[in-house]
Design brief:
nine-stranded mixed sheet, L-amino peptidase D-ALA esterase/amidase, two-stranded antiparallel ribbon, alpha+beta
């Protein structure tokens, strides 16, 4: 186990990063179409092709998920991934037409200091294409890379994180998160992560929780003015190798969102677009319906861990005055 989303067989991840732009894209690709759904709890989401993921909609499976920076401009990235998949003959076949299905969510990273003067057309279609071509099984980088390149939190740099676990039933559950939170992944002004109770080993520093919490630890720390008004978003994927229906994948997303709320304070705010995609590759049947509760229990934990790792592994952008990282501040 690598402690990554790619611990689930049949899932590949690819990044495309532009440090001058201060942004990028991350593509999650399935070897075979995966049963998929989504839960959107943020008040200001930016997404593409998410309505079809609701359980009552006809289409059951997708070819991949695109996560990117760029706010609404970043929604071009899914088109780049579609171009790469279509060239490979991947997608839904309707007569002679081949349509790769790539739902997408974006984070707002337009005010992070990068050069966003890109001219007439945004660079995100090309970034999405590059991320799709780069998608591979096995190890992939975390931190300030891909869709997490320009991600921030209210206190320190954000980024891409991932985590995985095996349930008592033998299923693998794994998460990938792009942490661009309107609030914080850490407690108060210190180095301790809200997700500390779920940490495995020293995957995000091994600091545990502070000996006690004081009122200042619970005070609102948020981007922008108070009350907060700057758009931010944490977007993520929760996946398993279990055989699940679309409705069951939706439930897995709901329980994974509990992990997001345990790792970030605040979460699901009016000005963020917190979105969790879910996927089931269908390699291992469940013995009973109660297995779904076990999967969701682990989904809560791996999502919280992935978010903390995204902040722990992040590095500052190479600009004067760029937001510091957890490593710079506390390591």
């Amino acid at each position: 186990m690598r402690n990554l989303l790619t611990d689930i067989a049949g899932i590949a991840v690819g990044h495309a990063t532009d440090l001058r732009l201060g942004s990028g894209a991350t593509f999650i690709m399935f070897d075979r179409p995966a049963t998929a759904s989504v839960v959107i709890l943020g008040g200001a989401p930016g997404s593409r092709d998410t309505a079809m993921l609701e359980p009552e909609m006809t289409q059951q499976q997708v070819d991949g998920f695109m996560l990117s920076g760029g706010s609404a401009f970043g929604l071009d990235a899914a088109g780049g991934a579609q171009a790469a998949l279509r060239a490979q003959g991947r997608g839904l076949r309707l007569g002679p037409a081949v349509i790769p299905l790539v739902p997408q969510a974006i984070v707002f990273d337009l005010n992070n200091g990068g050069n966003k003067d890109w001219g007439v057309f945004s660079p995100y279609r090309d970034l999405g294409y590059q991320a799709a071509l780069a998608a591979a099984p096995g190890d992939f980088a975390l931190g300030s890379i891909g869709a997490g390149t320009g991600a921030t939190t209210a206190t320190v740099k954000g980024g891409v994180g991932s985590a995985s676990a095996i349930t008592g039933t033998g299923h693998i559950v794994a998460a990938l998160a792009v942490v661009n939170a309107i609030g914080t992944a850490t407690i108060g002004d210190g180095p301790h992560f809200w997700a500390a109770p779920f940490e495995v080993g020293h995957e995000f520093g091994g600091r545990g929780w502070p000996a006690s919490l004081v009122p200042n630890d619970l005070a609102l720390r948020a981007k922008g003015r108070i009350p907060p008004g700057e758009t931010a978003t944490t977007i993520a994927v929760i996946a398993t190798d279990a055989v699940l229906t679309k409705s069951q994948v939706k439930r897995l997303c709901i329980m994974a969102n509990d992990g997001l709320a345990r790792a970030l304070l605040p979460a699901h705010a009016p000005s963020d677009g917190d979105t969790v995609f879910g996927a089931a590759t269908g390699a291992k049947p469940m013995a009973s319906d109660s297995d779904l509760t076990i999967l969701g229990h682990i989904a809560t934990q791996v999502m919280a861990r992935a978010i903390a790792r995204g902040v722990f592994e992040a590095t500052p952008l190479p600009y004067p005055g760029a937001l510091t990282s957890w490593q710079e501040k506390f390591a």
